[in-house]
Known about the structure:
14 strands, Rossmann fold, single chain, alpha/beta
Amino acid sequence: MIGRNLVYIVLSSENTIKNSIHWQILKEIEPEFNKIYILCLGKKYIKQEEKFRFISGNIFNWISSIPELNNISLIYGNDNFIGGYFATWLKLLKRKPLVVRIGSPWIYELNDFKSIIKTVVIKYTKRKVLKKSTKIIYNSKAIVDRKIKHKYEVVYNGVDTKLFRPMPEIQTKSDRLRLIAIGNINKEKGLEYLFEAIKDLKDKVSLTVVGDGPLLKEFKEKNKDVTFIGRVEHKELPRIINQHDVLVHPSYVESFPNVILEAMACGKPVIACNVYGIPEMVTDGYNGFLVRPKNIIAIKEILIKFNDKKKLFAAIRTDAQKKVHEQFQKEKQIHKLYNALFDSMSRPLK
Length: 350
């Protein structure tokens, strides 16, 4: 392990990293490295935290930090956009293997100039990342690119079932169905369709939204009956989920949202869109419910069904927990990812 260091590159801030599955992965592989350099997005700073060295800023700040990236054994990127593209360049420079984990379809609604630019850029960067990486790790089968020849593996997200579990001791009775939505508050999360679906059900349901993002202020002003509690630490989520009855996840551009598995592990029914990798964890009518994207009527009909047929909860709760424990326990998925990463270190560079 002498001189074995890792470079991790991600288009997220330090705070976002530490409240996501990426931090769980990094903490699991930490013992195998002397140092882990984290090139992240945000205000410019460098800070050391035990083995982790955060190099925050923009891509130009990352470039200026290259001379201090010493004794690298593996480069680990987290997307096929600008971060992944930078990782391919670093691979050529350092002559070290590169593994890129892709956890998003990277598709945008072309409703503003920024989205159009991202869509154009990613057509170029994606091809470069897939062809130049030692291995690609996808978090769902649905987003695997089968048009470009490349070496890949599918490793699902995992859930800590000791942390995310039913907590009957904190659950209280309510006359209304308590809904919760969790995630970044942006356009693709589809929250506006959920707000519309519950508009006429205020006497039957309540809604809490957990998360932060560019649309938070606007949504708070327009939806006075909805409780917004902002971003919370990941360790607080099990308690918050258990205080509610149903997770609703109306996102229509998402590969494999971990919050769905976390809710299922807590024994909560899930209503989500039938897109990308979500059907790989939710079977409609068995351990949750799937709806077409942006379908306000379908969401409303399922919420009414929950109110009218309380027995639905017991069966779905059991099946949801069973699915997570059998297929998506964190230990199983981390072990697969661990093997995929270290297998790449032993492969000769192309």
